[in-house]
Design goal:
The structure holds 2 protein chains of 2 kinds.
Chain A (H helix, E strand, L loop, with lengths): L9 H34 L16 H29 L10 E6 L2 E5 L6 E3 L1 E5 L3 E8 L4 E4 L6 E4 L5 E6 L4 E7 L11 E7 L1 H12 L9 H12 L2 H4 L23 E2 L4 E2 L2 H9 L1 H4 L12 H12 L3
Parallel strand pairs in A: 1-5, 4-10
Antiparallel strand pairs in A: 1-2, 2-3, 5-8, 6-7, 6-9, 9-10, 11-12
Helix pairs in contact in A: 1-2, 4-8, 6-8
Chain B lengths: L25 H5 L4 H30 L9 H35 L8 H20 L27 H29 L12 H33 L12 H35 L6 H14 L15 H13 L1 H15 L8 H24 L1 H7 L3 H31 L5 H27 L15 H32 L37 H6 L24
Helix pairs in contact in B: 2-3, 2-4, 2-15, 3-4, 3-5, 3-7, 3-13, 4-5, 5-6, 6-7, 6-8, 7-10, 7-11, 7-13, 8-10, 10-11, 11-13, 11-14, 13-14, 14-15
Classes of the chains: A alpha+beta, B mainly alpha.
Bound molecules: protoporphyrin IX containing FE and copper (II) ion.
Protoporphyrin IX containing FE binds next to helix 5, helix 6 and helix 8 of chain A.
Chain lengths: 309, 568
């Protein structure tokens, strides 16, 4: 089970130490209070003998203990807070981010500074390096959160925010938008593909390639023409073609992604067809209009999109 | 000095010329300026909205019972969770608190009325109509759906073009005006209309907490009201306070909202602290332990409440220094809160505990609220907050504080004061059933949500993927929710049955300490002809046990000094 306790980054591992201390301390306090509650409740039950209990109403030594105990805990945890935070969240300074995340209603845009690579919803990152990840928003407030990476960051229009990650092992890590951002906040899930540096470099190179301009398959070729002809191209970009829209997700290598619509569905031809037939039935509220296509056109578009590897 | 009756202070102004003694049915209620009737109407308003807010949340829990459920779509779900939160905070918790306070504050300080009786009625009705206006949005094109916190820029017209958010602004503004005016009324009543002999050190703890609470309201609600007015200007007249595209600030809304919103969570907990202090003392048959520490920690919480709002915004990237400062101030609140918990335990210690339903809720509160308090400290620790904020862990936390804290306190108060208000006794047997059903349902619903949060389930989602454990935990939560729903229906049944045919209550069924129990149950229109003399914080007990009266032990205990009396 993936949780905040399965630390996948060095930052999360450091943070989990703090988590452990806190859980121990909190459970100790809770047990103490519960014990005192149960003990006093049982011991001082009304005996029904009508004897008035001693009317004791204060005790300065006891009060000092009540203040002192929590104070010690608070000071201790404040110290741990400061040291942990400054260790795992130092300022971004002049470091170039590995990826710039932009939250959209309701999908993720990823740009890799220094390259022309742009992708959507699934982000690739190399393991073993301390990476700066910077984020902002194109519309409302979103939040970037992968539980096993430790920290989350709000993505706020007009502002830039950052987290640091040093991923320990290759693998797929899931997360979700964590700040309510409107109708489809639920389907704004995150998929991080962490790769060995060599694999990552290979992926980055492939991702920088433009899409196949003229698909070999004739159906896909028809689809490509439709895509350019219809409004698709005004919102979506397919690098290497005339389609250069920026409203919707980049679709240059759409076929090589495993999921679509920010984690809502696996990326299969059937699901692409469903989506094109009626976007609002698949993801109500999504900002993609419904086009009245014939079945043939939808099939051609599906063929085109799925071969965009 | 022998026990000598003292005269009761009265508002200088005569009440409107209404024959409140005669029975005019409903008209008598809606035209009433009597604080007891207004208090009871506040409580009915709270109950009504609690049922509505409860139905909303049960529908939400049905939707979340299994992964990828299609019971309802996002449009409805988002309206429901927005309305549920808004309703519970503004139209359940606040009216319930004001209900108890409006009914009890004059009685507990030996007064016959609130300072401004007609303002009191206005506060009630304006709150109620604020709620109606909010709910009218359902008929007017859709309820608000951007959350009770209603963040900018999602609350802007171009992202939320339906009128729900306009109703949110108007309804909450209206209710907010009622809230502030009620708070002013409490401050004046408490400071000016106490019976002679009752100094601030003799105030019942509940009245103290209401005094602090009222100041919190007076200083925090204006921030909300200003934000609401600004948002309404943005939406209706194209101002750009929160519109990022036009140079406004999205964060400005968050600052204003939480500048109100954080004190608000103390506004709804402090009265419960007050109620519990009365209940613990009476049902332990001891004075409240550490009176001045309980009151002092209440004041400390009130002051600190205004210095912690950023802890709702630790993830927005204000930087480590700012976050560190607010982390410290937030953790500090743990200290006065801890003091209270231990003082209540000390009150029970050595007492003679009677486990009536009121006391059961009070004792359960100690454990449930500790859970909520500790998870609150977790959120004050910046990196833990950056892991868990906006997940189901927060949902668990706020409900342990709101239900395990505020609501348990209010329920203790309901069982404690019901005989006074109605002249009838609630069934202790059904009360016990209600208690266990509610406690089990409550923990069943929310305990597992701590785990859901750590598993990565964000809050405010209308559905979720089928990940390991998520479905099971959500199903448990839904079942717990329905247990709480059943318990609530049982409560309504109990209350109605008791009002109709419950056994008559005596004026002092619990052998209590404070002035409200020295008059009849229910009290006559004019609360007191004469009030027992006040020389300690437990005047009614002094009267009943003259040989063992608190004021006979001068200098021995803080809070129980004999005060110089002007008995004339
Ligand atoms: C027929 C032409 C179009 C095709 C074939 C097409 C295809 C797609 C596909 C395959 C996706 C899923 C992307 C992913 O999972 O990463 C998508 C999502 C999206 N499209 Fe289009 N699209 C078209 C037209 C448009 C237009 C005109 C707009 C802008 C008004 C638009 C806006 C969007 C948006 C905002 C999303 C993200 C939806 C969400 O996940 O909430 N699309 N589109
Ligand atoms: Cu989002």
């Amino acid at each position: 089970m993936r949780s905040i306790f399965s630390a996948a980054t060095q930052e999360a591992a450091r943070l989990n130490r703090l988590d452990t201390y806190f859980i121990v301390a909190a459970l100790a306090v809770l047990l103490l209070v519960t014990y005192l509650v149960v003990y006093t409740s049982l011991k001082f039950r009304d005996k029904g003998n009508g004897i008035e209990p001693k009317q004791e109403s204060t005790n300065l030594r006891l009060e000092m203990l009540m203040i002192g105990g929590p104070t010690v805990l608070v000071v201790g945890f404040f110290f741990l807070t400061i040291t942990t935070t400054s260790a795992i969240l130092p300022p971004a300074g002049t470091t170039t981010p590995v990826v710039l995340i932009t939250g959209h209603q309701w999908w993720w845009e990823f740009r890799y500074p220094g390259t022309n690579v742009q992708t959507a919803n699934e982000v690739h990152l190399p393991v073993g390096q301390r990476l700066l990840v910077v984020g902002t928003s194109a519309d409302v407030v979103h939040d970037w959160w992968v539980p096993s990476f430790g920290l989350k960051m709000d993505l706020i229009p007009g502002l830039r925010n950052h987290v640091w990650v040093t991923i320990k092992k290759p693998g797929i890590y899931e997360g979700a938008c964590s700040e309510f951002c409107g109708q489809q906040h639920a389907w704004m899930r995150i998929r991080v593909v962490a790769q060995m540096p060599a694999d990552y470099a290979r992926w980055l190179q492939a991702a920088a390639r433009p899409a196949v301009a003229a698909p070999s398959d004739s159906l896909a070729r028809v689809g490509g023409a439709l895509f350019a002809h219809y409004a698709c191209s005004s919102c979506h970009q397919v690098r290497g073609t005339l389609a250069a829209g920026q409203q919707g997700p980049d679709l240059t290598h759409f076929g090589s992604r495993s999921t679509m619509l920010a984690g809502l569905l696996p990326n299969t031809p059937q699901n692409v067809t469903r989506w094109l037939t009626d976007p609002q039935a698949v993801k109500p509220g999504a900002h993609m209009p419904r086009f009245i296509f014939g079945r043939d056109s939808i099939q051609a578009l599906t063929a085109y999109l799925t071969q965009l590897k | 000095m022998a026990a000598q009756p003292v005269l009761v202070p009265e508002p200088a102004e005569a009440l409107p010329d209404l024959d409140l003694g005669g029975d005019q049915g409903l008209l008598q209620w809606i035209s009433s300026v009597d604080h007891k009737q207004i208090g009871i109407m506040y409580l009915w308003v709270a109950l009504l909205f609690m049922l509505i807010g409860g139905v909303e949340v049960l529908l939400m829990r049905v939707q979340l019972a299994v992964p990828k459920n299609t019971f309802m779509g996002p449009e409805i779900y988002n309206q429901l969770f927005t309305m549920h939160g808004t309703t519970m905070i503004f139209f359940v918790a606040m009216p319930a608190i004001f209900g108890f306070a409006t009914y009890l504050v004059p009685l507990m300080i030996g007064a016959n009325e609130m300072a401004f009786p007609r303002l009191n009625a206005l506060s009630l009705w304006i709150t109620f109509f604020g709620g109606l206006l909010l709910y009218f949005s359902f008929l007017a094109g859709g309820a608000p759906d951007a959350g009770w916190f209603n963040y900018a820029p999602l609350n802007q017209y171009n992202y939320s073009f339906r009128p729900g958010i306009d109703y949110y602004c108007a309804g909450l503004l209206l209710a907010g005006i009622g809230t502030v005016s009620a708070a002013c009324n409490f401050v004046v009543t408490i400071l000016r209309y106490r019976v002679p002999g009752m100094g601030l050190k003799q105030l019942p703890v509940f009245v103290w907490m209401m005094l602090i609470d009222s100041f919190l309201i007076i200083f925090s609600f204006p921030a909300l009201n200003a934000a609401l007015a600004m948002l309404l200007l943005d939406r209706q007249l194209h101002a750009h306070f929160f519109d990022v595209q036009a140079g406004g600030s999205a964060l400005l809304w968050q600052h204003l909202f939480w500048l109100f919103g954080h004190p608000e969570v103390y506004i709804v907990i402090l009265p419960s602290f007050g109620i519990l202090s009365e209940v613990f003392a009476v049902f332990s048959r001891k004075p409240i332990f550490g009176y001045s520490f309980i009151v002092g920690s209440g004041i400390a919480i009130g002051l600190l409440a205004f210095g912690v709002w950023i802890h709702h915004m630790l993830a927005v990237g204000l930087g480590n220094v700012v976050n560190g400062f607010f982390s410290a101030s937030s953790m500090l609140i743990g200290i006065p809160t801890g003091i209270k918990i231990f003082n209540w335990l000390a009150t029970m210690h050595g007492g003679s505990l009677r486990f009536s339903t009121a006391m059961k809720f009070a004792v359960a509160f100690l454990v449930e609220f500790t859970i909520g308090g500790l998870s609150g400290i977790a959120f004050a620790i910046v990196p833990i907050d950056l892991q868990l904020t906006d997940t189901y862990f927060v949902v668990a936390h706020i409900h342990y504080v709101f239900i395990g804290g505020t609501l348990f306190g209010l329920l203790a108060g309901l069982f404690y004061w019901f005989p006074k208000m109605s002249g009838r006794q609630l069934s202790e047997r059904l009360g016990s059933w209600f208690f266990w059903l509610f406690v089990i349902g409550f923990n069943g619903t929310f305990l597992v949500q701590h785990v859901l949060g750590t598993l990565g389930m964000p809050r405010r989602v209308y559905t979720y993927p089928d990940l390991p454990g998520w479905g099971t935990l959500n199903m448990i939560s839904t079942i717990g929710g329905f247990l709480m729903g059943a318990a609530t229906l049982l409560l309504v049944y109990m209350v109605i049955k008791a009002i109709r045919s419950g056994p008559a209550a005596t004026s002092d069924p619990w052998d209590a300490f404070t002035l409200e129990w020295s008059t009849a149950s229910p009290p006559p229109l004019q609360n007191f002809d004469r009030v027992v003399p006040v020389r300690s914080a437990r005047p009614f007990r002094d009267l009943k046990r003259p040989g063992d009266a608190d004021w006979l032990k001068p200098g021995k205990k803080e809070g129980y000094h004999e005060r110089e009396q002007s008995v004339d």
